[in-house]
From TrEMBL:
Enzyme class: transferase
EC number assigned by the record: 2.7.7.9
Name of protein: UTP--glucose-1-phosphate uridylyltransferase
One MF annotation (Gene Ontology) recorded for this entry: UTP:glucose-1-phosphate uridylyltransferase activity
Catalytic activity from the UniProt record: alpha-D-glucose 1-phosphate + UTP + H(+) = UDP-alpha-D-glucose + diphosphate
BP terms from Gene Ontology: UDP-alpha-D-glucose metabolic process
Species, as recorded: Microbacterium mangrovi
Top-level taxonomic group: Bacteria
PANTHER family hit by this protein: UTP--GLUCOSE-1-PHOSPHATE URIDYLYLTRANSFERASE
Pfam families per record: NTP_transferase
Length: 294
């Protein structure tokens, strides 16, 4: 399917209250996961999928995000003079990743509102919405598959993951019809945080979406829902019910790190660190000893 190049939108205007007091002065998206801020992993994922235009939707006290993706000549000069090429490369990588733009959300009116704020920048391009709470392992290219399915179907694509029924109430859940493609389903309905007995499936929505710009017209007419916020899920419901548009889901079976709460964040750091060649030899034996003493 022929269309303009994909863009990416990363909503990052949340207050990060679950991580207070650490997020009192630091955006939660800048909290380090091993040695990079969480949001850099998300930008790298977009770049690895071939997207080089990234819009980050920010809010108050989020200037550190833009600063991180800017160059720091004095720091780079200091590292160069020390001959510290490895750290110099890691610092420069963040500012060379992509064309990165920021836009203030203004009032915190929900994910749907944050996406709608991207309308002027996105224009008539298809685009990915990537939530920073969900980090996807680079070895499991979910977004690349989703972009491919968008090209195949010409329709909105969302990421789904099988979830244990006892946790299904924490997610938006998809009602689906199976297709002939492995791990691709047609979404016919969406239910926000249902009880286990009311859930139409065990397929939960995770934080990756590939959207047609037509979603902006739907969002402009979407009334505030739960919590008085404009919900992206409500707009997707409308699109799923439209036979001329439709929504497909890619069922992800790879490695996903949930950094949305303290325990998930700590698990993400440990899981990603033990797979690092420069850290695993020292970390794995320590973890075994630590676990044996619990």
């Amino acid at each position: 399917m022929s269309h303009k190049p994909f863009k990416a939108v990363i909503p990052a205007a949340g207050l990060g209250t679950r991580f207070l007091p650490a997020t009192k002065a630091m955006p939660k998206e800048m909290l380090p996961v091993v040695d990079k801020p969480a949001i850099q992993y998300v930008v790298e994922e977009a770049v690895d999928a071939g997207i080089d235009d990234v819009l980050i939707i920010t809010g108050r006290n989020k200037a550190n995000i833009a600063n991180h993706f800017d160059s720091v000549p004095e720091l780079e000069l200091n590292l160069r003079n020390k001959g510290d090429d490895a750290r110099l490369e890691s610092v420069r990588r963040a500012s060379d990743l992509a064309d990165i733009y920021t836009l203030r959300q203004g009032e915190p009116k929900g994910l749907g509102h944050a996406v709608l704020r991207a309308k002027r920048h996105v224009s008539d391009h298809p685009f990915a919405v990537m939530l920073g709470d969900d980090l996807i392992d680079a070895r499991d290219p979910l977004l690349t598959r989703m972009l491919s399915e968008y090209d195949r179907h010409g329709a909105t694509v969302i990421a789904l993951m099988e979830v244990d029924p006892e946790h299904i109430h924490l997610y938006g859940v998809a009602e689906v019809e199976h297709t002939d493609e492995e791990d691709v389903v047609k979404v016919v309905g969406l239910v926000e945080k249902p009880k286990a007995e009311d859930a139409p499936s065990n397929l939960a929505i995770i934080g990756r979406y590939v959207l047609n710009p037509a979603v902006f017209d739907v969002l402009e007419h979407t009334q505030p829902g739960k919590g008085g916020e404009i919900q992206l899920t409500d707009a997707l419901q409308v699109i799923a019910a439209d036979p001329e548009q439709g929504v497909y889901g890619v069922v992800f079976r790879g490695r996903r790190y949930d950094t949305g709460d303290k325990v998930g964040y700590i698990k993400a750091i440990l899981q990603m660190a033990v797979d690092r060649d420069d850290l695993s030899d020292e970390l794995r034996p320590w973890l075994r000893d630590f676990a044996s003493e619990l």
